[in-house]
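Notebook B, p. 112. Complex prediction, attempt 2.
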Amino acid sequence: VTARISIDLNADVGERFGHWQMGDDAGLLEHLTSASVACGFHAGDPTTMRETCERALECKVQIGAHVGYRDLAGFGRRSIDVSPTQLHDEVAYQIGALMGCAQVAGGAVGYVKPHGALYHRCSGDSEAAAGLVEAVCAADSGLRIVGPPGSALLFAAERQGLIAVPEGFADRAYEPGGQLRPRGRAGAVLDPRSAICQAHEIVAHGTVTARDGSVQPLAVRTLCVHGDTPGAVELLRSVRAALERDGVIVERFS
Amino acid sequence: VTARISIDLNADVGERFGHWQMGDDAGLLEHLTSASVACGFHAGDPTTMRETCERALECKVQIGAHVGYRDLAGFGRRSIDVSPTQLHDEVAYQIGALMGCAQVAGGAVGYVKPHGALYHRCSGDSEAAAGLVEAVCAADSGLRIVGPPGSALLFAAERQGLIAVPEGFADRAYEPGGQLRPRGRAGAVLDPRSAICQAHEIVAHGTVTARDGSVQPLAVRTLCVHGDTPGAVELLRSVRAALERDGVIVERFS
Amino acid sequence: VTARISIDLNADVGERFGHWQMGDDAGLLEHLTSASVACGFHAGDPTTMRETCERALECKVQIGAHVGYRDLAGFGRRSIDVSPTQLHDEVAYQIGALMGCAQVAGGAVGYVKPHGALYHRCSGDSEAAAGLVEAVCAADSGLRIVGPPGSALLFAAERQGLIAVPEGFADRAYEPGGQLRPRGRAGAVLDPRSAICQAHEIVAHGTVTARDGSVQPLAVRTLCVHGDTPGAVELLRSVRAALERDGVIVERFS
Amino acid sequence: VTARISIDLNADVGERFGHWQMGDDAGLLEHLTSASVACGFHAGDPTTMRETCERALECKVQIGAHVGYRDLAGFGRRSIDVSPTQLHDEVAYQIGALMGCAQVAGGAVGYVKPHGALYHRCSGDSEAAAGLVEAVCAADSGLRIVGPPGSALLFAAERQGLIAVPEGFADRAYEPGGQLRPRGRAGAVLDPRSAICQAHEIVAHGTVTARDGSVQPLAVRTLCVHGDTPGAVELLRSVRAALERDGVIVERFS
């Protein structure tokens, strides 16, 4: 008998703002096991956050705090020179705010994942990563931290005694060094067929094939599919169906 | 033997934003028993909130969530036609955010008080008041609600089983009907001497003398001194000293 | 020989913000003669404004400043108690900002129209209307002012010697008193068939049939079709085609 | 007979936001010849901008557009990864907005100077500098550009045919390479005595003595004194008095 492989599927949700829509959250939540909810700094507003938590609870999807830079105009995708102290405080603020919204929806927050430019920064900047993790720890030491395997972020999480959850991306190309290919570069976002293949490779073999054909190790516990790409729901549905056909158990990490 | 009278003294603090200062929080916190901390919607930012909580804890001052309209440009003093649902969600968000900041400072939130135009609205608008109270209740049913005696807000708090804390103002004039004289009108803010007298009258006699000389009943458990008026620290110190000379116990409500 | 009737067709455009989309501006601009461009307070950002002006110029569509309350979270649709002085200054700021963006696109601003809750306020509040008009006048006394016929806004414009352009709505229901039925009420937004009929009635007969069946006079020089309603481009195309079939000349006001 | 030396004195003004104050603009404007007015992105709001323009006109002080990153929380002092295209558009927006406010005050804008992190970026990043200058050029090719001597910014200005105005700082230390010592480093801001000496050296000799004692050439046409440092008015008054005692003509550049 072999132990069956299990994987978590997460996506960014709750990225509306006021009258502006973004992504098909209702559709995504039907196929996810974890939902990274924007906390109002790069996207999201209190009503969107509360409604997204309610919908996640109905779908039995785990709620995570998708914390980002204070930058609605740039959707959190622009690097901003925020000091580690301010970063720590902004993360504490955002996690608390989502906890408040989750609570009125009858739920709780299970994990924290940085968004966009902050995700990128916390991968390599150990001071920023430590600031973020310290804020998470003070909020609730039972919270998990989601980030790239081998990153400064997961290293900081483990040092503080938090559970670190390594993450791979189904629909983003990897560079030979193992990093994500930056958005805006050609080929950064994969077509659906390639994304399904990459999901299979990551989950079944623990590797990813980089743009130059080299095969990199990539051991992950959750797979991300971006929620704001066109056809995201269909892609997510296909990825999940393909994984389940392979005998993989799709379930939330814990 | 007579039971001694006790009163709480509160003020608005944490109203800085980024590089902009407001009020002398360190000075105020030496004389307060409760501190209403801005939560980032009308004033305050995460670092200010965390630092204000730290300082309040050092001074053994109770932390309250001063929730307001999302209106930095208007400092929360402008009426905005926010729906009761959005209000409910924005209050849940702000309380959670302050809880997050209080927690990294090693403390907790003890009460909620609406700010500025929202305070005014919740005094009379029972739908808005019920929305606010419902959010408070979901966040933590042990939180107290501070508001004007006889207001829709305190009525809603009691209906939901929360402890309602009636509040009077030392440095604001009262109209014959018992309402605060609106800011911007002549004589709305009292001079220090009159404020000390009014504090004495409210605490010792449970009444306030309105602008027309009529005496109104005003039974309160906390007195507010505004933190952003010039000389606020000196006024607060004088009010507290005068009350203590009268034998009043100045202590936080609970 | 009879003089042929002419009418202008306008819609709200440039209502994107950062990564968030709103409406099909490219589609709308093919059928409009005037484009009311959001100026960054209730929607719009500098790049969106510049690109929208470029596209309007390509389509030979007149550019107007759609000025609103500073309220991205509420899309300018919530009443805010902004003082007439601040309103005046915020309008001067927004017109100037759009002029800056129009200029780098090689064009100029032809008119000013308030948006949402500010449109509603300027219809009846003569102090607010005068403040707005004064700012327009100082910016460029050749600018036209678009507003409801008989409104405080158009009255103020004429008093200051500006050209007032009365406006009707193709896709919004009218109340018996001649006001627009407020958004959010049942039946406030008309279905496409009714909108085409109403456009015909307004342009051909100078009247509108209110919800109670009463016929109101409504003499207008421009007709608005909302750009953010689903099917807005198709509706606009149909309205324009129907008017042209009737022999109406669709051309910008001047 | 020798030609007398002349110099312009500029400072940052209009940096209030809503209810938050910053600096003593009225005091500064009495001693300045040019006023760099914040345009609402890093500081300033429409009413502050209009009032600052009015006051500058009363004092016969030239009005400049102090354009910055969209970052009220960071006061424009944090580097943000804004694309050159967005930068271009945001500069066009801000210049236009200030022109709108200056116009209602009865004045006009004479120059453009980037603020904080944007000033730093445009010193060395020629793509950003070119974007900024292009926007200035489209707004009004008579506008001057203020920046560090030898910078990418002034080079871009001259390439586009704009008048470049080299600037020195009275109250900021210079590094051996000729750059400003970054804020936050020890010794970055000079004490008043040293600032007066440095102003004299720059204006009389066209040099500045760096922190290591080396003497750098520094040929400038305007001197900046920061408006938000404590004692800024007194410093400015002293610098101006000392220069005038030396026979220097203090007058606006043109």
